[in-house]
Write a structure and sequence with these properties.
GO terms for molecular function: ATP binding. The protein has about 290 residues and is of the alpha/beta class. It has a single domain, classed as Rossmann fold, CATH 3.40.50. It is built from twelve helices and ten strands. The protein has a six-stranded mixed beta sheet, with helices on both faces. A four-stranded antiparallel beta sheet has the order 2-1-4-5, with helices on one face. Strand 1 and strand 2 form a beta hairpin. The chain is globular and about 55 Å long. The protein starts with 5 loop residues before the first strand and ends in an 11-residue tail after the last helix. The structure holds adenosine-5'-triphosphate. Adenosine-5'-triphosphate (ATP) binds next to strand 2 and helix 1.
């Protein structure tokens, strides 16, 4: 049997609160379990308000922090026990982050194209300038850009939307199986957000990459996601197919979130799969402002 792409088993994260000598503990994540299948790439949204534990979970999936309880298995291997440079590098090639602020993801003093070339050399094994440029070009094309558009330009010379697309291209260079995008559009101009999040669905379809999309924005999550989990105070309070969860939310928090989206978007029908809903901006096929 093929191992799952990603499996979280009763994952928890507890931080020491109030300084080293304090006994106070913050349970940021508690008992979170879910599985992303290897054979079915998907956009998987983790939704929750500020402080619900989303970023803590993302950092653990990326191997940037270790669970206090439970296990995270990537393609069958426990992420917390990866040892040695080779194993870490192999993991980094397969699981790539996309951060909230693209201006922080790039070195402000390095030209964007050069940054991409060095990623190609360091993570994708590109030998020589021509191979690095080719890898950068291929990745940039996947996000609707080209080397010609970023060549010689520093991060601040691109728009936030362009730079976030370049950041996604950077993440694609090593050929990942999983992207972990933590609030990737919250700092992007509202008019460009849907273009970026729709890209995730395209990448799922074109490259077969799975995407964990972390957000507090139910509307974009609903529009692009296959499955969602809703977190509150560190716990998953609702999980399942995006349409089912948002058509018939059972937890009071999910109802609140849904109401908030309907207030903003004005979706007329209860059933987001209905014909009427399909014509509204809040529908999965529609585009949000
Ligand atoms: N390094 C840390 N030390 C102590 N407490 C932390 C640490 N990181 C996060 N926390 C706490 O854990 C809880 C969850 O935080 P986390 O950042 O994971 O939530 P979040 O849902 O991503 O919120 P946001 O959307 O604001 O980033 C919060 O109460 C936060 O204060």
């Amino acid at each position: 049997m093929t191992a799952a792409l990603l499996e979280l088993r009763e994952v928890g994260k507890t931080y020491a609160g109030g300084g080293l000598l304090s006994r106070r503990r913050v349970a940021a994540v508690r008992g979170v379990s879910f599985t992303l299948a290897a054979e079915r790439p998907e956009v998987f949204a983790i939704i929750g308000e500020s402080g619900s534990g989303k970023s803590s979970l993302a950092r653990m999936v990326l191997g940037m922090s270790t669970p206090s309880e439970g296990q995270i298995l990537f393609q069958g291997s426990d992420v917390a026990t990866l040892r040695g440079r080779g194993a870490r590098l192999r993991f980094m090639r397969r699981v790539q982050p996309i951060f909230q602020n693209p201006f922080e993801a790039f070195n402000p003093l390095t030209r964007v194209d050069r940054y991409l070339y060095s990623t190609a050399r360091n993570l994708a094994g590109a030998r020589g300038q021509a191979a690095a440029e080719q890898a950068a070009e291929t990745a940039l094309q996947q996000v609707g850009l080209s080397v010609a558009e970023v060549r010689g330009r520093f991060p601040h010379e691109l728009s936030g939307g362009q730079l976030q697309r370049a950041a996604i291209a950077r993440a694609l260079i090593p050929g990942p199986a999983l992207l972990v995008a933590d609030e990737p559009v919250s700092m992007i101009d509202a008019s460009l957000r849907m273009t970026i999040v729709n890209l995730f669905r395209d990448l799922r379809d074109r490259l077969g990459v799975s995407i964990i999309y972390i957000t507090h924005d139910l509307a974009t999550a609903y529009t692009i996601s296959d499955r969602i989990v809703i977190m509150r105070q560190g716990e998953v309070v609702e999980a399942g197919d995006a349409r089912a969860v948002l058509s018939h939310p059972s937890h009071p928090y999910s109802v609140q979130l849904k109401d908030a989206v309907l207030t903003i978007e004005g979706t007329p029908e209860d059933d987001p799969g209905s014909e009427a809903a399909a014509r509204t901006p809040g529908s999965r096929e529609g585009s949000l402002p």
